[in-house]
Design brief:
The structure holds 2 protein chains of 2 kinds.
Chain A lengths: L1 H21 L1 H13 L8 H12 L13 H24 L2 H34 L8 H25 L5 E3 L2 E3 L4 E3 L10 H13 L5 H33 L7 H4 L1 H24 L4
Antiparallel strand pairs in A: 1-2, 2-3
Helix pairs in contact in A: 1-5, 3-5, 4-5, 6-8, 7-8, 7-10, 8-10
Chain B lengths: L2 H21 L10 H4 L4 E2 L2 E5 L14 E9 L2 E10 L20 E6 L6 E7 L3 E10 L2 E3 L2 H15 L4 E9 L5 H20 L5
The chains are: A mainly alpha, B alpha+beta.
């Protein structure tokens, strides 16, 4: 049975591999960014998770691939041409985000054109997940990061005042009686937002659960990450006030990204349990 | 259409894309920075001397050429930086958005509305100043980063040219000095815009 399926899948696998080969320089550039920026290092995990998602949804290979209709072939071809056009424009003009984001679209076009809707149903989740490996445009991240720094500083100052700590907020600066602290770029969770969302989506997809539960978990990861980061900031500033500048060197502050990531996983786990309990009686 | 034929179509498209990508003519490099070399030291009553403190307007390692001057007009002072960036089809040769205005020891950066240019008010413990800036490709000024990027993309794709200027004007704005700083920034924007529009290019 498996042998019969090979002719159906072989053109698709060949086309997919050739497309990835064309994108090799783009992938290499992305991998360099993942290695260079800690907030983007989740990019290394994304293709692995994507491959896993495709593998688990591959279905029965023995069924092979039926011929596509003219309409689906046209849509697939249009997606492929659009993806390759974006790759060319992005690569030739140095707009790396455009070139990178075109890859999942080109792959989806290849799958729809060569494999048809049956193949798309099996791989679209994995291909869509590849979007998380594309680093967000830096300008957008920078603007959001600055706004989040102001918000983080404001909430931290308000929380500290509630705890009886005398603190003056001046933009991103927090003036305490014994020290002035800056809510720096590294203190913001925004650069890791893509990683947090990718984490939430992976968490939601990797185990069978109702669709509403999946959507809730996927959407909750980013806000939970922001919440975890603010809690980390409050603890760090409080420690700096009570203990002194030496507290800035603590583990929670030094490994900010890891701390927030672990806290987000724990919060997601808690939310998951709550959702499971909610959905329990319906079964 | 059979799967084999569809595969041939895909491979053909991929090969055509690769051919266009690798056979595209290289982007030209700006040989001379005419606009910068001829920037007058005297501008409508403003007299300039070379040099700007880096903590006011940071220099960018990607600059191919630049002029950095401190201009004075009576008791008014302004710092002007005009930098040329070339071969911007390579992202690491573009102006860094982290170096348009200083970010170290700065507590607050607020957007300020100024006609035709981008502007921010930078506040730190011991300083407060306005930075007005824009990009320029040939004679056209761009205040919006998005419009600039689109114009640059067009220039690189169709003219195979990737040069632009980044013009920055910093004006001190003490505790109550913002209105005066705005007037100065607008005045210098108009003067510099007119001067550079006539000379921009390679």
């Amino acid at each position: 049975m498996a042998r019969q399926s090979v002719p159906g899948w072989a053109p698709l696998i060949t086309a997919g591999t050739a497309t990835l080969a064309l994108y090799a320089p783009v992938l290499a550039g992305m991998a360099a960014d993942w290695a260079r920026f800690p907030s983007q290092s989740h990019g290394f995990a994304v293709p692995v998770i994507s491959a896993y998602l495709i593998w688990t949804r591959r279905g029965t290979a023995a069924s092979g691939l039926p011929d596509s209709s003219l309409a689906t072939m046209s849509i697939g071809l249009a997606a492929l041409v659009t993806g390759l056009g974006a790759l060319l424009i992005g690569s030739l003009s140095g707009e790396t985000f455009l070139a990178r984001i075109s890859m999942p679209l080109a792959l989806l076009g290849v799958v729809l054109f060569v494999g048809g809707p049956a193949a798309v149903r099996r791989v679209w989740v994995g291909l869509a997940y590849l979007l998380f490996m594309v680093p967000l445009p830096y300008l957008t991240v920078k603007i959001l990061t600055y706004q989040s720094r102001l918000l983080d500083a404001g909430i931290t100052a308000a929380a500290l005042r509630r705890l009886g700590v005398p603190v003056l907020q001046d933009g991103v600066m927090l003036h305490l009686p014994n020290i002035t602290l800056e809510v720096a770029e590294d203190c913001s969770s925004v650069p890791a937002i893509a990683a947090l969302i990718a984490l939430g989506v992976a968490y939601a997809l990797l185990r069978p659960r109702p669709v509403w539960s999946r959507i809730t978990l996927a959407l909750a990861a980013a806000p939970l990450g922001l919440l975890a980061n603010i809690a980390r900031l409050i603890v760090t500033v409080l420690a700096a006030y009570l203990v002194g500048p030496v507290a800035i060197g603590n583990v929670i502050h030094q490994f900010a990204g890891t701390t927030v990531f672990l806290a987000t996983i724990l919060l997601l786990r808690g939310l998951d349990r709550m959702l499971t309990r909610l959905s329990g009686p319906r079964r | 259409m059979r799967a084999g034929r569809r595969l041939v179509v895909v491979l053909g498209l991929l090969a055509a894309t690769a051919a266009v990508w690798y056979l595209a003519s290289p982007v030209g490099e700006c040989a001379s920075a005419a606009a910068l070399n001829e920037l007058p030291a005297t501008l409508h009553g403003w007299t300039g001397v070379d040099g700007i403190p880096d903590r006011i307007l940071p220099a960018d390692p990607g600059e191919a050429a630049m002029v950095r001057r401190t201009y004075r007009n009576g008791r008014r002072v302004a710092w002007v930086s005009v930098a040329l960036f070339t071969r911007q089809d390579q992202p690491d040769r573009r102006a860094s958005i982290n170096r348009i205005y200083p970010e170290k020891d700065v507590s607050l950066v607020e957007r300020v509305a100024l006609p035709g240019v981008d502007a921010v008010l930078v506040s730190g413990a011991d300083r407060r100043f306005l930075v007005a800036y824009w990009r320029q490709i040939d004679r056209r000024m761009y205040a919006s980063e998005l419009r600039f990027r689109l114009a640059l993309m067009r220039a690189i794709l169709f003219a195979r040219r990737g040069d632009s200027l980044l013009v920055r004007i910093a004006v001190p704005a003490g505790p109550d000095g913002l209105p005066e700083a705005l007037v100065t920034a607008v005045e210098l924007t108009q003067i510099l815009g007119a001067v550079l529009a006539g000379r921009a290019g390679c």
